[in-house]
């Protein structure tokens, strides 16, 4: 499998169709910290995928560039006024020094070489600019269905996450890149999903992509999920719990 799990045929279509678009709610919170006086000039969205977070960033900046290492993901991103896209890795950004007032990373830090990424983010940020990193993940909980946790354990046993870097950016790592943590907060949000929404979400994740590298097909993965969760949905949408964290750093 490619070292980028999302750089494979069909990944962009599954991502665009299956990922919940919660980004505008997070960016609204971020704006209170990084753009309290109105829109910034330029923002960079690293590992932008199919452009959900890039679109949301237009609320904070007049010009937003989204970059991703998978050209297929960028091909599925919509073209909107004030936005542009470029194929690039987080560790090798094709931009001049001090180009941006805001650098954003959503749901992707765990895929990066952290030291090299932080050096690049710091390089392209203007002094006084901000690096924002946020994530959001499924908590494995379905409202009103306490047995659902057993299903989640079975799912992750069958479809484990591929290796990734864990943990937050340390004070030492940030300081080395001339960054200082200004704000950190946690948030939670519920999403209402049908069974098919839930299947689409899970098959957009790297767990499913890794399983295809072991010989399964997306159709068989989707069928297993669909059949095994049927009793929980019983033809009705259900409320699923998600939570995340926001970290805001300022470039010295």
TrEMBL record:
User: Which InterPro entries is this protein grouped with?
Assistant: Diverse_substrate_MTase, Methyltransf_11, SAM-dependent_MTases_sf
Instruction: Supply one GO BP term.
Output: methylation
The record places domain Methyltransferase type at: 44-133
* Pfam families in the cross-refs: Methyltransf_11 (PF08241)
- What keywords tag this UniProt record? Methyltransferase, Transferase
An example Gene Ontology molecular-function term: S-adenosylmethionine-dependent methyltransferase activity
Could you confirm whether the keyword Methyltransferase appears in this record? yes
In its keyword annotation, does this UniProt entry include rRNA processing? no
Which family is it part of?
A: Belongs to the methyltransferase superfamily.
User: What is the name of the protein in this document?
Assistant: Type 11 methyltransferase
